[in-house]
Amino acid sequence: MAKKTLKPWGYEEILELNKYYCVKKLFMKNKHRCSLQYHKKKIETIIVIKGFLKVKINKTNKKFKAGDIFTLKPNTIHRMEAINGNCTYLEASSVQLNDLVRIEDDYKRI
Question: For residue 21, how many C-alpha atoms fall within 13 Å in the half-sphere facing its CB?
């Protein structure tokens, strides 16, 4: 399947999408970050594969390295940022792929 979508911060690649779950591989360029966002229904579990990821979770910043795993529940405001080099991580989530509420975006996306 593997559908790759280029993003201003890197890319995401859908590895599996079915009626039960979605698995994506995400590559984020050093010092880039995704939108400050939340999901109304979607739940995500993140597994850092390579590099370092700084994650704003609500009002707290946390740092994760390869092998670290964390879960973001619905309505959790979050933003991922690659630090100290490029970062690759997996996202296993529920299937609500369009459930995205952007609060802020470095790339002026709506």
Answer: 9
Provide the domain limits for residue 41: 3-104
Number of domain units in the chain: 1
In the 8-state DSSP scheme, what is residue 68? -
For the chain, the distance separating the N- and C-terminal CA atoms, rounded to the nearest angstrom, is 28
The domain that contains 63 carries what CATH number?
A: 2.60.120.10
- From first to last of its 110 residues, the chain has per-residue pLDDT tens of 578 999 999 999 999 999 999 999 999 999 999 999 999 999 999 999 999 999 999 999 999 999 999 999 999 999 999 999 999 999 999 999 999 999 999 999 98
